[in-house]
Structure formats: structure tokens, C-alpha cells
Amino acid sequence: MKAIITSLMMFFSVIAFAQKPMVGFTPIEIKQRNYLEFSTLYESWNVDEGDGFYMLYTEIPNIDGYVYYYFATGAELNYLSALIMYNLESYKNIKSKTIKGCVRQSNGWYKHTSSGLYIYFQTTVKDGKTLYSILYTYETFDIK
């Protein structure tokens, strides 16, 4: 029974992430929507700062990963959202649903034809673990 519930939760998370990535939202809107769709608690969010940006992130256990929302320092709306996960099946499911309606660009990004979002899929190995990433933004940049 627990396996069925976990599978259903993963399925609904996959659909929500693939169809409604959050770019151009405030931290409060992000927390509210994630609470409604993925049951993330307001207390489960973390903030980290970098050079010229800060990110709001939380764990999404049913995809064995994290979701990150990047904001320019002082900005109210995020400019990038990223899913980072360890589960290959979750990654494949989200990627297959996300890539529908996209056109591959010459720089490796995909552009969603109706929303205008750019999407980037990446697999990396860090500390012996394979990480699967999906980035969503309205402006592309070079991936290193």
C-alpha cells in the first residue's frame, strides 16, 4: 500500500513540475504553490546566497531531490527554477513530460513553444553520485 501511495505521489509531482515550472514568482507564491501541490511545509525552506543572487530551496522527497528557485539580489521575482534529483526514473518521467512541445535550440537548450520558457537537461556526477538536473528560465546562459 505504501508503495502505491509513493508511486502516486511521484506521478503527480512529475506532472506538476513538467507542466507548471515556476519562473517569475515571489517567494510567498512559490511556498504557497509548493505547499498545495507537494505538501512542502513553510518551515522546510532554506535560503542560501551567492554572488549577485540568492536561492530558496527545499527537499521534495517523492522525487528524491530538491527544487531551487533563484532570485537576483534584491529582486522580488525568481528568474530560474531548477530540479536536482538522484532518482533516474523521476528524471526520465519529468523529462519526457517536459520535452513535449519543445524545440531544441543550437546551444543545447530546449524552448517550450507555448510558454516561451527555456529548459536545460543535465546529468553530472558529484562525489560519486549521479545528479539529474532540469533548469527552467526565460533567458538562456552558458552551462559549464
Query: Strand order, biggest sheet?
Result: 1-2-3-4-8-7-6-5
**Termini distance?**
43 Å
Helix percent band: 25-40%
| DSSP strand count | 8
- On the 0-100 scale, what is the average pLDDT? 83
Q: Indicate the low-confidence ranges by residue numbers.
A: 1-16
Q: Structural class, from secondary structure content?
A: alpha+beta
Instruction: Give the percentage of residues in beta strands.
Output: 35-45%
Instruction: Give the overall shape, derived from the CA principal axes.
Output: globular
Report Rg: 15 Å
What is the count of DSSP helices, taking H or I runs of 4+ residues?
A: 3
Largest sheet: 8 strands, antiparallel
From N to C, what is the helix and strand string? HHEEEEHEEEE
Strand and helix layout:
Blueprint: H1 2-19, H2 27-38, E1 46-50, E2 53-60, E3 65-72, E4 80-85, H3 88-98, E5 102-104, E6 110-112, E7 118-126, E8 129-137
Antiparallel strand pairs: 1-2, 2-3, 3-4, 4-8, 5-6, 6-7, 7-8
Descriptive overview:
This protein is α+β, with helices and mostly antiparallel strands. An 8-stranded antiparallel sheet has the order 1-2-3-4-8-7-6-5, covered by helices on one side. The protein has helices spanning 2-19, 27-38, 88-98; strands at residues 46-50, 53-60, 65-72, 80-85, 102-104, 110-112, 118-126, 129-137. A hairpin with a 7-residue loop joins β3 (65-72) and β4 (80-85). Mean pLDDT is 83; it is low at 1-16. The chain is built from 3 helices and 8 strands, in the order ααββββαββββ.
